[in-house]
Amino acid sequence: MLTLVVGGTKAGKSSFAARLARRADRPVTVLATGVARDPEMSRRVAAHRRQRPPQWAVVEEPLEIAQALTPNADLVLLDSVDSWLFNHMERLGGAEVDFTPELCAELVEVCDRQLEELATDREVIAVTAEVGLSLLPMSPYGRAFTDLLGSLNQRLAARAERCYLMVAGVPVPLDLFREEA
Description:
A 7-stranded mixed beta sheet has the order 3-2-4-5-1-6-7, with helices on both faces. Strand 6 and strand 7 (170-173) form a beta hairpin. The chain is α/β, with parallel strands linked by helices. The longest helix has 20 residues, at 140-159. The chain is globular. The protein is built from 5 helices and 7 strands; from the N terminus they run βαβαββααβαββ.
């Protein structure tokens, strides 16, 4: 089962996802993808660490999410898809790379396969940023990230059994708005 929690920066995505995980009343494995590249990001990572219950297992893995977990990781809180995608883009060379439509399509496929593998035979609560509500980035790299994450989020939402949009700390269930196939 896949639950997607999507929203803007500081909208309460991680806190809400953690509440969902706590309600499951099962062992939780947090799959943390953020990399502390500067002091401000270090503070954000530390704040997330403090909010997690001490009994939760934590795996910090910036890239190989499906391979990082043990088979007994039954309920996984993936925090977050957007930082994980960014790590993949950085591994490819970051802003120095021309993210052509072909390269973007390939990267979305690779990420989508890893996410599908991660969610096979386990429950996953995935946290991701909604980039479609902000300004169009000024740089080609920023636009590539926005396009890639938007494509990946759409695939995740299509696969998710439950989907929530976080707005100002309030979860809005999106399942009510899905079109019937």
